[in-house]
């Protein structure tokens, strides 16, 4: 867990290993690793090297040269490191997480789920019943863009998240049932017995293997809805209401992300004609991965190097095959270009493992947001100020987009109306108590419209899908026929260039060092002082500016 973390965003963090040293008389327990094959090494030679090191391959992605391997050999990682055919091994741990709570804000509150105490807003929309709540679409000029294009059914947007509720009325018309996949298996508990996803028998379907049509977390459905809820008169319309949604489930119900599923999902997206992938998560146990941080052991350094290499291999593969990669910048209230503090792991892989703090230099990288070819997106509130929780950094943030800031209000108190409203799975609402037995919302951040439910969230996880939606509009407007997969395709480099070039420049605040003040749900005053560096057209808070859908497609 990052010590300055605010997030609840599914912005995941790649995990590193903290090796436990077994007692002398105790047998070494089998562990699971992600093994990276050497570049240019044949699959047969790599498999033989894994076997020689004492490992057993249980799953393999030959396209990327990555395998899931089990081994009970204490020296397995050393054997892999000394092999000329393999490029390293890392324990298969949580890679990311839906953003968590930054200590700088309020340890009792999750940034994405900060809640107000007022009444639910009323529907007054015209074209869509709830469009009066969608200040975010006005901020990016979506209505004007939709007069040019609402997107094309030939454009696919992959949602790498906790899943998508395919049967929500504002999701189903655009959900691709054929291409959607679940790359995860629910994990009941960690090595300390701490609940992760819960008992399989307690799952709604009584299984740890969920279909690719459900979201038992809520995060992925909200993201998908922001991108591509259709203009159907049900509730809201997304940024690109005519494109198709492909569920690439890589997150656990709990919000953790493991390395191998994220790699598999990226390769699958690349091989199946997905045009844009949204990644609103970051990696655990560490937010930042360091190759030579003195605060880490040699084993930890090697594991982090492997994680970054593996992730970049998958990101590069997807980019080469035409996938535009968009990610949340993080909900940590910190400048990613400076030295920061990190803490982890949150998820124990051996009994007794506990998180520890460490200092991380700017050379360390967060995955996926600082991965190759990824477009990191910071978050804005209704006033266009950078959201208080949003991470930042000149040269790190590419563009900004509305992600909600519930304390971007005149009195600095929480107002759910200025969060981002999007689809909410009814099953999750009933399980959490946000929806009563008679179907009535019990909290002000949830509204019912017709037979469907919608909720207000905030976070860079909510900003990123706005940018992904505009990217999908760009592919729809300028894409060419994809001869390999059908549909349309457009160079990711050209998509990013247009996204940046058509963003509306926004200067740093004056003075550039700005102190945010807001009241927590409990009434306590919180503050965070942050410094914006750069020019009007390229700075640490907004990158090249706030995205603009109309300018991107006109």
UniProtKB/TrEMBL annotation:
Keywords for this protein: Hydrolase, Protease, Serine protease, Signal
Superkingdom field: Bacteria
GO molecular function, one term: serine-type endopeptidase activity
Active site: 161 (charge relay system), 219 (charge relay system), 461 (charge relay system)
Segments forming domain Peptidase S8/S53: 153-529
Biological process according to GO: proteolysis
Region span, Disordered: 100-129, 342-361
Family (UniProt): Belongs to the peptidase S8 family.
Protein name: Subtilisin family serine protease
